[in-house]
Amino acid sequence: VQLQASGGGLVQAGDSLRLSCAASGRTFSSHFMGWFRQVPGKEREFVAAIRWSGTSTTYADSVKGRFTISTDNAKNTVYLRMNSLRPEDTAVYYCAARNTVMVSTSASGYNYWGQGTLVTVSS
User: Fold this and answer.
1) CA dist., res. 67 & res. 32, Å (int)
2) Which residue in 72, 91, 92, 111 is deepest, having the highest Cβ count within 10 Å?
3) What values do phi and psi take at 119, rounded to 5?
4) Residue 39 φ then ψ, to 5°
């Protein structure tokens, strides 16, 4: 599985942004896709995950109610809609794929990673 993340940019606090992650290669409806983020000097942090079929989602408490993860199976793409962005959301965002039927909020649980896209939120 190859992943290509895009959609990052510079926005102001309160603005919205949508990240995309296009997957190519072999994917399965039972597998999970995740979004993580990382700032320099810190561990990669879980943001959200979704089963490819779209039937199961999980969010970090810090983004719950503001971010929405979704899939478009026809386009083999996973999205992360981010609303009400805050300066503390500033990070490099990575998409990842996990080829098991159980969700994971740990970066070590994902087998494939995209290259990352930078989101900067100014105050």
Assistant:
1) 17
2) 91
3) -115, 125
4) -115, 155
